[in-house]
Amino acid sequence: MSDKTPLESWIARKIGLGGSTVTREKISHYQLQKVRETLRWARSHSPFYKQRFSAFSENFPASFAHFASMPFTDPDDLQEQGLQFLCVPQGDIDRVVTLESSGTSGAPKRVFFTADDKELTVDFFRVGMSQLLKSGESVLIALPFVRPGSVGDLLAIAVRRLGARPVLCGPITAAAETVEVMQREQVECAVGLPVQILSLVRASGRDVPSRFLNTVLLCSDYVPDSIVHTIQSSWQCEVFEHYGMTEMGLGGGVDCAAHAGYHLREADLYLEIVDPESGAPLPAGEAGEIVVTTLTRRGMPFIRYRTGDLSRLRPESCPCGTVLQRLDRVRGRKTGRIAVGTHKEITMATLDDVLFGLPEVNDFSAAVDGGKPSKLIITVYGSGREEDLPRKAREALGRVPEIHLAERSEELQLVVNAAKGAASSFNNKRRIA
Questions:
Q1: pLDDT (0 to 100) of residue 426
Q2: Which of 43, 146, 374, 390 is 20–30 Å from 162 (CA)?
Q3: Strand pairing partners for 286?
Q4: Residue 305 forms beta bridges with which residues?
Q5: Which among 159, 213, 163 has a CA at the least distance from the CA of 186?
Q6: Pseudo-torsion of CA 285, 289, 295, 297, nearest 10°?
Q7: Angle, nearest 10°, between helix axes 388-398 and 401-408?
Q8: Nearest 10 degrees: CA dihedral of 299, 303, 306, 311?
């Protein structure tokens, strides 16, 4: 049995159990009460929610089954009516995060945080990071940190509360230089986006960047199996994963030492899995779209917010022995799928797993031309001769059954190019264009 996740005792304290035994029933009871409180608060203070939920009574919902009958909110609502979500005066807002829009026009999405909302995130980061490092150790933080309240800044505050030392480098633009920083600072832990940490692995070659390095935390983007395996085999360290998004308050869930799914921040969030098409709730074990309701945020709550991320709640108990729910690894987004022939689809997650398994590949981008046949255009960034890289990538992609069959039936044309530089950055996460 692995060590139990520290989130369980933390959540027990937050929901007022003290030394009492944590059970699913107690957590569910707490969450339902918090859902009711959040609904009352939002309807009383937010113009958007007052209109959206005007048909429901003050004591609604009586159960989570009733809650599942309430309308969703989604990214379009946030983009079009962002300020109407606010439940506090703008003068009480301490931090505003501007998000990329999936559309080509219109106002950007903005998420607002009060100082108390930020403190909730710092506390979650503190508990999650307690699995990865000890007091007196150092952690490389390859996330934006310059602006107060940015994700790297909040993580640094959490790390200091553990008695550890943050080494702030920001998003990685020069991998070799960052490896030198890791060596000089003798870091025991590194935190960053999967593709950016992979760039450090490629830059360090066969040398572990610090003989002290024990753990890595991958966050802020989809985590491909191939990247996890590459980090583990190259650096001989333990790899943890975090799932979250800005609308969740930057933190959603983190795996434990069993590495068998993300344990959720259940005192602050209630998660549902719904059918991506119908919106109907799905039982544990069935994959669908993640829908989130914040339970403790005051500045800008989110109620039944459709994330677009695809996963499932795992029905079996975690080997670590916790009663907390486990969210399976996110397998892409409902919009990140393209047709590659009759009744066939391929996701960015599939491309990630295939291409990042090639040691020469540091990054790639994918685009689709919807003609007849449709054209899947892959640009690969990496080391080695430019004439060899596309060939190796094409051979690997050609072994994907959906691509192989679509090419044979002449429903798809696969185009693979090589380029220098990098395709992604912290603010431009990889997606099919």
A1: 47
A2: 146
A3: none
A4: 73, 292
A5: 213
A6: 150
A7: 90
A8: 100
Q: What whole-number percentage of the chain has pLDDT above 70?
A: 89
Give yes or no for a contact between 75 and 245, defined as CB atoms under 8 angstroms apart. no
DSSP H helices, 93-222, are: 115-129, 151-161, 175-185, 194-204
Running DSSP on this structure, what letter comes out for residue 240?
E
Cα gap 238→244, rounded to integer Å: 20
pLDDT digits (tens, 9 = 90+) for 332-360: 665 556 666 665 677 777 888 888 888 88
Task: Give residues with Cβ within 8 angstroms of 94, minimum separation 6.
Answer: 113, 114, 115, 117, 118, 149
End-to-end CA distance of the chain: 43
Mean of pLDDT over the chain: 87
The CATH number of the structural domain formed by 1-334 is: 3.40.50.12780
Cβ atoms 212, 186 nearer than 8 A:
yes
Locate CATH 3.40.50.12780 in the chain. Answer: 1-334
Domain with CATH 3.30.300.30 in the chain: 337-419
CA distance 220 to 153: 15
Helix (H, G, I), strand (E, B) or coil at 212: coil
Phi, psi of 273 (to 5 degrees): -115, 125
Q: What is the pLDDT of residues 77-118, one digit of tens each?
A: 999 999 999 999 999 999 999 886 544 345 688 999 999 999
pTM for the whole structure: 0.88
User: For the domain bounded by 337-419, which CATH number is listed?
Assistant: 3.30.300.30
Cβ-count burial 283-306 (b if 16+ within 10 Å, e if not): eeeeebbbbbbbbbbbbbbbbbbb
Q: Please tell me what DSSP assigns to residue 277.
A: T
359 touches 400 (CB < 8 A): no
As given in the structure block, the two tokens for residue 371 are: 């003609």
> Do the Cβ atoms of 12 and 22 come closer than 8 Å?
yes
The C-alpha atoms of residue 115 and residue 299 are separated, in whole angstroms, by: 9
